[in-house]
Design brief:
The chain has 13 helices and 15 strands. It has about 375 residues and is α+β, with helices and mostly antiparallel strands.
Length: about 375
Amino acid sequence: MNSDNRVHVLISVGSNVDREKHLPEAARLLRRNRFIEVMDVSRVYESPSVGGGVAPPDFYNAAVLACTTLDPKELRDELRHIEEVLGRVRADDVNAPRTIDLDIAYYQDRVEERDDWRIPDPGTLKAAHVAVPIADVAADWVHPETDQTAYEIAAALDTTRIRVVPDLRLTSPTRSMPDDNWEGDRLEVYAPKLESLVRRQLIEIGEDPDREGLLRTPLRVAKATDYITGGYATSLDEVVNGAIFDAEGADEMVLVKDIEFYSMCEHHMLPFFGKAAVAYLPNTKIIGLSKLARIVDLYARRLQVQERLTNQVADAVQDVLNPHGVAVVMDGRHLCMMMRGVQKQESSTVTSAMRGTFISDARTRSELLALIS
Ligand code: ZN
């Protein structure tokens, strides 16, 4: 290919018929085309199909970054040709199933209006299933009309219904990109909105988010945040998952102590962490011991104050077991005090929540305190 008149283009690829077959096949045909040099491909994303009535199968979407010497019309003809090879019949019904869709999303920085199509494709600004794969493969691509980067565009769209298809990759066979190196030096989009917020926060504190050490920091922070706040997306039922058994007459205190917990204070969004003890006096039911630690995690993985966390754990045990009594004691160290305060490094905060017999019977309470001290 003559490099003098080459332009960069982004091609959107979509399919909702035999999509596991058609997407890789389209990528292969693009690579084989002598007018098109495929430089990189995005990961494959699944997105719900649009349209009313009987819902057609969900789409797989990807984006291909390529060089070409073709002009827009010629490139479009080549893409149509590949579609035909793969059996696509362009129907009038826009919601009809698509064996394969190949569209020019961007053609260099060209802005062009034709009879029934335009460059850039309007979907680059409006459709998450177009914008997210493009941001994956060419995060810094600038939209010629809005001056936003592909990354910024994707970050502004609702991406909640789009997910990566982990097992399907269109990676060039000439380029080795094994699974554990897949992230490489490229920008991966995980949670575009959260990532762009982190990026802006880095700028705000005087950092350069484009220096090497910080390039993937927004992504890492987004993933860590997802984990640390995973409690919001989990329910007590899921955690307990049926691990409740007949007490069969057991009525002695059940105590699990030294349960490590890690949470985030809601005032500073800084960690607090420590150990919890959870005790209960069985009535008719007991629970798998590991589940008590899982219940602590469920509420710890949210923005919290330690007092509420302690009470929520107690209430949850009360709810699922209806025992004679529940006691939760938590001992936590708060980074918002330790990192900012002066000489507070050794301080810890102890909170407790008692229910039932642990309130009404002083002996039960002192038995507990002897056991955990
Ligand atoms: Zn705090």
